[in-house]
Structure formats: C-alpha cells, structure tokens
Amino acid sequence: MKLASFIKDGQATFGGIAGDRLVDLGPKFGNRFADLKALIGGGGIVGLSPFIETGKDWMPLQVGQFLPVLPNPGKVFCVGVNYADHQKEMGRSQSEHPTIFLRFPDTLIGHGAAAWIPRNSVAVDYECELAVIIGTGGRHIDAAAAMNHVVGYTCFNDISIRDFQRHTTQFIPGKNFPRSGPIGPWIVTKDEIADPHALSIKTRLNGEVMQDANTNQLIFKIPELIAYISSFTTISPGDIIATGTPAGVGFARKPPVFMKAGDVVEVEIEGIGVLKTPMVPEADEED
User: What is the domain partition of the chain in residue ranges?
Assistant: First the structure.
C-alpha cells in the first residue's frame, strides 16, 4: 500500500493511492483515527487495502496538496555519514556506533511544498535518504527482530545548512532550519519492498543527477539502527529514522554546488517514488 497525508477541501486528512487516485480515508476512519500516525499506531492499516482500492472519496493524484507523510511524528532520528563514500568525501573516520542526531518535526514539509533558502546562509545542500517509518514501538529491540517494528519507507531530503552545521561538532543547527525537511510523497508499506537494502537512490538538481547510489552501501543497516536507537530511547509508532545520504553532496564538490532560489531538487528511490521540492527565498513569516 501507499499511504499519504494531504489537504482536501481545505482540511488535513489522510488516505492512500490507487493508481492515479488519491483516496481520502478520513470520512471512513476519521472517527477512530485522527491522522495517519494514529492509524498506524492503532493497527488500522490491517485490512486497509480494499478501502483504498474501492474508495469513492478521491481526487486526481496530480492535484494533491501533500503534507509530510506524518505531519506529527514523535521523533525524527537522522543518521550521519552512513555511506562509506560519503564518509570519505566529508573527511570523517569510521565510527564504532551510528552517528545519530535529531530533527525537529516542525521542519518537515510535504512533496511539492517549497523549501526555504535561509536569508543568513548561502550554503544550502541536498541529501537524498531512505526514511524508515516505525509501526510498532519498543525499547532494547534486538536487531534480529527489528524489522518487525517497521511499517514502511519513504523518501527524505535532509536539506543541510552547511555553514551552520560546521559551526561546531554538533549537527543540530544546520539540520533544523524551518522548511528544510522534505519527506514523501507517501509511505510505501514494507510488504511492497522486498529488500530495503537493495534500492537505487538518487538526487537530481534541476534535472542533473548529483547523487546516484544504492542502499546496499549503507554502513549501519536498518536493523542495527533500530537496535542502537532503541538502546537509548523508546521508539514509538510514527517515529522516523532517516538512514543517511551517499556521496555527491554539494558541499564536497570542487567547486561546491549549493542550492539557490529557483532550483528544483528531486529525490528518487526505487520502489517508492519521487520527492520533488522547489527552492524559494525564506519568507518574512511562516505560513
């Protein structure tokens, strides 16, 4: 299944994709589940597929106004330097444990929404990533059982404000500017992805391929990440784990390539889809 959060008739709702239709499940399930996160956490995806296929409340997919796949995730974990080639281009050495930092949920935007070029930076970079959506929570999860806690996958662009990221050894400032976390367009449930560690992943900037890799190159695989993260905190349904980006980022190019207003960046992951983001100047006030 493909599950999404979006705006319909001016209201936030959730649903699924059936061919070229974006099917609204809010009228059917909204009295039980307030949003997609609640539906996932409440086990509502079991037996959901027929309601998507036959749903009468729909609109054409191409006119959908997408929200972040989960507008209200509890925690957004990001993994740094998790591809060997990216580790090399960033001048980082191999670590015994995954490099984990957090994104603020309010930095996330949906497919097609505009990301901001901050007024106080000219070092705005792209990072294609496979994001894992947690379906079942837990603590001290064994790696052998970790995939049982995954509900699905989506595309993520960890837009990075490199000058702020490099102010200190802490990543947080450069990874949490407003409107810097495109995610989507939808969640593909794990039953449709035979092996999440064998997916083509790439970034295009204004149509030019900038990153082109495969998730088989991940240093720390998804089970290891879930096991490690759950060793220091409880993971919950609707949490997100962005698994890291491969080589080809703009910061490491010679000369560097940074995004500017008017650019369009796309993240494409095999079996999931394309996450498209136009870049615009930072607004005076958030919408």
Answer: 2-66, 76-281
Q: Which residue has the tokens 């000058």?
A: 163
Q: How far apart are CA 139 and CA 188, in angstroms?
A: 24
Q: pTM of the prediction? A: 0.96
- pLDDT, residue 286, reads 52
Find where tokens 């990075």 sit: 160
Rounded Cα gap, residues 25 and 97, in angstroms: 41
Average pLDDT score over residue span 268-284: 96
* CATH no. of 76-281: 3.90.850.10
Residues 6+ apart with CB under 8 A from 180: 107, 115, 116, 159, 160, 161
Looking at the chain, how many residues does it have? 287
What is the mean predicted confidence (pLDDT) over 229-254?
A: 97
Residue with tokens 């990301």: 115
